Amino acid sequence: MKLSLIVGLLVSALVGCTRPGVKPSCTMNGRGQGHCDFTSVGKKAGGNCGVISVHRVDTPEKADSDIFCSGEVAANSTVKVDFTIPAVDTMCSRDPGKKWTEECVFTFEAVSP
C-alpha cells in the first residue's frame, strides 16, 4: 500500500511538471512600440496575459501598457501580440547622448485576465 501511494505521488508530480505553459518573449523600441511572442511549451494549448512596465533607472517614474493576452496558443506554436506605451518616447529619451535603454528598463509582468 505504501509503495503504491509513493508511486502514485511520483506520477502525479511528473504529470504536474509537464502541464502546458505559454512563455512570453518581448521586444520594444524607444517609441514604446513592441510585441510579445507567446510560445506554447507543452503538449496542450494554453494562454497568457500580461502588462509591459517601463521604469526609469534614475527616478521612480513608471509607465504601463494596457493588459493584453495571447489568446489560445496551440501546442508547440507561437502567437505575436503588439503593444504600445505612448509615454516611453518622452520618459526615456531625455538625454540626447544616451540610448533609451540606458535611461529605462522594461519587464513583462504576468497578470490574470
Summed up, the helix count is 3
The tally of beta strands, per DSSP, is 7
- Helical percentage: 10-25%
What fraction of the residues are assigned to beta strands by DSSP? 35-45%
Q: In terms of quaternary structure, what is this?
A: single chain
Profile the largest sheet. Answer: 4 strands, antiparallel
Integer-rounded radius of gyration: 19 Å
Distance between the termini: 43 Å
* Contiguous runs where pLDDT drops below 50 for at least 5 residues: 1-20
- Please identify the structural class as seen in this structure: alpha+beta
- Overall 3D geometry? elongated
Secondary-structure element order, N to C: HEEEEEEHHE
Overall average pLDDT: 83
Description:
- By secondary structure, the chain is of the alpha+beta class.
- It is 21% helix and 37% strand.
- The protein has helices spanning 2-17, 88-91, 100-103; strands at residues 22-28, 33-40, 49-56, 62-64, 68-69, 78-84, 104-110.
- The strands form two sheets. Strands 3, 4, 5 and 7 form a four-stranded antiparallel β-sheet that branches.
- The protein is elongated and about 45 Å long.
